[in-house]
Every structure is written in C-alpha cells, then in structure tokens.
C-alpha cells in the first residue's frame, strides 16, 4: 500500500516526486513507456529558469530524478497497463506488478506524433524537432521545414519565422485542417513558402548526425524532389497517454484529462499534471509547475482523509 503513486517520469512526474518525497509521502514513480518524457528526446534546453548557459534535456531529467531520489522517491520501470479507480485504495497494474495507492498523480504526458520514418527518428534532437518553442532559436538565419496542415503547424511555422530566414511548410493534402485565420496568417508571411501535396520520404544526413536536406514526394506529379534544409519541425499533433484511463477519468474529445481547481480530476484523490492535461502550453516549466500543484493537492487530500 502506497500513499501516492506517480505515473510518468517527465518534468511533471519528477517535480511531483520531489514535492511528495519531501512531504514524507514516500512516492513510487512508475516510469512509463518513455522514461524522462519528451525532455529525454530533446537536446539543448535554453528556456528552463536557472540554467543561463542552457542544459541538455536528458541531463535536466537526470538531475531532477536524482533530486527526487535524494528525498526518498522510488522508481519502478514499466508502463501502466490497467487502473481501477473505482476501488479504494486505487489499483494500478504495471507489467507483472499490481500496486495499491491512496492517491494517484497522473503525469503520463503526451507523445508528439511522428511521421514514422527511420531517418526522422535517428535525427530527432539533431535537427529534427517536435517543439518550435523549445528549439526555434537554434535556427537563426537558417532555412527550415515545418510539416503539418493543422493549427499547430501554422502556429509553429509563423513563430519560426522570427528566427529562420525561410520556412517551407509541407502538407500532405491541398486542403488544410487549420483554422482560416491561422492559415491566412501563414500565407501572408513572406518568409513562409507552402508546398502541397507533399510527403517526406527521407531526412538526410544521418552519417553526419545533422539535417542537410529532405527527400519529398510530390503526390500530384509522383516525382521525388530534394529540399535543402537545416531543420525539420514535425508539427502533426500530439496524443495524450490516457488510453488506460478511458471510462474512469474525464477527458476531452482529443483524450486530454480534464482538471478543475488546479490539478483535480473527476475522481477525488486522483490528480493530473503536465502535458496529459495541457495541450496548450506544453513547456517543461509549466509541466514542472503543475507537478508541484498536484503534489501539494495530493498531500492535502491525504491529510484531510486521515491517511
Ligand atoms: P491536428 O490534428 O489538427 O492536425 C494535424 C495535421 O497533421 C493535419 O493537417 C494532418 O494532416 C497532419 N498529419 C497527421 N499525421 C500525419 C502524417 N503521418 N504525415 C503527414 N501529416 C500528418 O493537430 P494540431 O496539433 O495542429 O491541432 C490540435 C488541436 O489543437 C486542434 O484542435 C487545433 O485547433 C488546436 N490548436 C489551436 C491553436 C491555437 O488556436 N492557437 C494552436 C495549435 C493547436 P491531414 O489534415 O491530412 O489529416
């Protein structure tokens, strides 16, 4: 029986672990499919307060994890495959283990959708990015590509023109899912060139561990083209990791957990933090902040209920 179990070990989960460990709640953190969350997949982080020279994403995660361990947080590997939030204590299954907990902090994050090509995966963090706010500043006066046709792609392409000399926006259809206003803003921006209908087939150059160009297929002409570029921003949406909570925790139509009064979910004693409940800000610092809120709320819930 545990006082608090934290699902997810990204920025939100680890911050919740530091706070609950310091409150002597002996948290157990279940690592999940992507230990360290999205920060573990990025390189330089320049906008996390307290690191004037910047810090590597994996290093920031490792340091935060050690900070939580220093106060007694325990980590278990394995992704959660089932939860029962109708019983008290809550039951959580991860791998072969079943845990019981009086309170639960869900910080399972969201995963950026990827195109699914091998070279994209190999160059992630080396010119391929899923976060313009995080990585845009590395592309000052460079030519870059943004992939996607929704609001995220429009927003990121427009944002990236602050840094890049040219942004090529590639979309697989001639019609856009993006709202009219955001599409128009991108169309009117002189630094943005929109190309449709195109799909990326290769990101080059894996041997040099940096992006030099992409091979794209024009779906109308069926011809292959090469576009020189130093960065590829994949902006085709995110999927919150909330499958196991379906039918138990309230979520919106895209699967993000709905919270109220800060981190509270519809089940008393279950709190949510980070990208699993936020598709708007998606920053390390906002995830950390909401992890802190979830931890303090869990602590208050436990003491109010005599645990
Ligand atoms: P969306 O699901 O709206 O759009 C995803 C886009 O990526 C689509 O154009 C889709 O193409 C394309 N895509 C998906 N998979 C692939 C693939 N494998 N290869 C190539 N292209 C692919 O996601 P968004 O993140 O853009 O938006 C999510 C929600 O957040 C929306 O409701 C949006 O309005 C909102 N949002 C609002 C903002 C704002 O108001 N400031 C900013 C950002 C997001 P296709 O159309 O062909 O399926």
What is the compact description of this entry?
The chain is of the alpha/beta class. The protein is 24% helix and 27% strand. The chain has helices at 11-22, 57-70, 118-122, 132-135, 151-160, 180-188, 284-304, and strands spanning 2-7, 28-30, 44-45, 55-56, 74-76, 80-84, 90-94, 97-106, 110-112, 128-129, 143-147, 166-170, 192-195, 198-204, 213-218, 224-228, 231-234, 238-240, 270-272.
Q: Helices and strands in order, then pairings?
A:
Elements: E1 2-7, H1 11-22, E2 28-30, E3 44-45, E4 55-56, H2 57-70, E5 74-76, E6 80-84, E7 90-94, E8 97-106, E9 110-112, H3 118-122, E10 128-129, H4 132-135, E11 143-147, H5 151-160, E12 166-170, H6 180-188, E13 192-195, E14 198-204, E15 213-218, E16 224-228, E17 231-234, E18 238-240, E19 270-272, H7 284-304
Parallel strand pairs: 1-2, 1-8, 2-5, 8-19, 10-17, 11-12, 11-17, 12-13
Antiparallel strand pairs: 3-4, 6-7, 7-8, 9-18, 14-15, 15-16
Helix pairs in contact: 1-2, 1-7, 5-6
The structure holds NADPH dihydro-nicotinamide-adenine-dinucleotide phosphate.
Q: Explain this structure to me?
A:
It is elongated and about 65 Å long. The model has no long low-confidence stretch (mean pLDDT 95). The chain has seven helices and 19 strands. The chain folds into two domains: 2-112 and 238-304, FAD/NAD(P)-binding domain, CATH 3.50.50; 118-234, FAD/NAD(P)-binding domain, CATH 3.50.50.60. It has helices at 11-22, 57-70, 118-122, 132-135, 151-160, 180-188, 284-304, and strands spanning 2-7, 28-30, 44-45, 55-56, 74-76, 80-84, 90-94, 97-106, 110-112, 128-129, 143-147, 166-170, 192-195, 198-204, 213-218, 224-228, 231-234, 238-240, 270-272. The relative contact order is 0.19. By secondary structure, it is an alpha/beta fold. The longest helix has 21 residues, at 284-304. It is 24% helix and 27% strand. The strands form five sheets. Strands 1, 2, 5, 6, 7, 8 and 19 form a seven-stranded mixed β-sheet that branches. A five-stranded parallel β-sheet has the order 10-17-11-12-13. β12 (166-170), α6 (180-188) and β13 (192-195) form a beta-alpha-beta unit. α1 (11-22) runs parallel beside α2 and α1 packs parallel to α7. The structure holds NADPH dihydro-nicotinamide-adenine-dinucleotide phosphate. NADPH dihydro-nicotinamide-adenine-dinucleotide phosphate is lined by residues 113, 115, 147-153, 155, 172-173, 177, 236-237, 279.
